């Protein structure tokens, strides 16, 4: 377990429990995903860690930037993270929240990287394969990466299956160089 995961876990667990008890899973999922995207911006990330920008000033500006996307509870969560110097963990917290939610709701999020866009029948077949592999329904997030040449890469719950031509060529090159 990485240090980021260790630091983020208590926040993710607390937010998940609060969202579940309040029946606001989707609301919190949306807020956390939004915060993750905002914090991924290099300018925001730099400002958050810049000692010249005071914490209170940063939080006020950050919340102003997020206006309309956060509930009062979401704003309080941002303040809590900022006061504890953990705002940079929001991406990890969002990812963990999504994993907890998937587990709770009986599905698994699967990142699918393909060399070309999938047809509906291919996506259906892939979903059936994921269900056998993970023993629960999959929610596919498909992206296209033409550098794979052909095939697919699946990532779910810390597991990776690389069935791409690029991956096979890389493994072959590694074996030949040894």
UniProtKB/TrEMBL annotation:
Give the record's keywords alphabetically: ATP synthesis, Cell membrane, CF(1), Hydrogen ion transport, Ion transport, Membrane, Transport
Q: Output the superkingdom of the source species.
A: Bacteria
One Pfam family name is OSCP
Q: Where is the chain membrane-spanning? A: none
Recorded GO CC terms? plasma membrane; proton-transporting ATP synthase complex
* Protein localization: Cell membrane; Membrane
- InterPro entries per the UniProt record, alphabetical: ATP_synth_OSCP/delta_N_sf, ATPase_OSCP/dsu
Which membrane topology term applies here?
A: Peripheral membrane protein
GO terms for molecular function, please? proton-transporting ATP synthase activity, rotational mechanism
The UniProt entry's sequence similarity note says: Belongs to the ATPase delta chain family.
What's its job?
A: This protein is part of the stalk that links CF(0) to CF(1). It either transmits conformational changes from CF(0) to CF(1) or is implicated in proton conduction. F(1)F(0) ATP synthase produces ATP from ADP in the presence of a proton or sodium gradient. F-type ATPases consist of two structural domains, F(1) containing the extramembraneous catalytic core and F(0) containing the membrane proton channel, linked together by a central stalk and a peripheral stalk. During catalysis, ATP synthesis in the catalytic domain of F(1) is coupled via a rotary mechanism of the central stalk subunits to proton translocation.
Q: Which HAMAP family does the protein's record reference?
A: ATP_synth_delta_bact
Provide the protein name: ATP synthase subunit delta
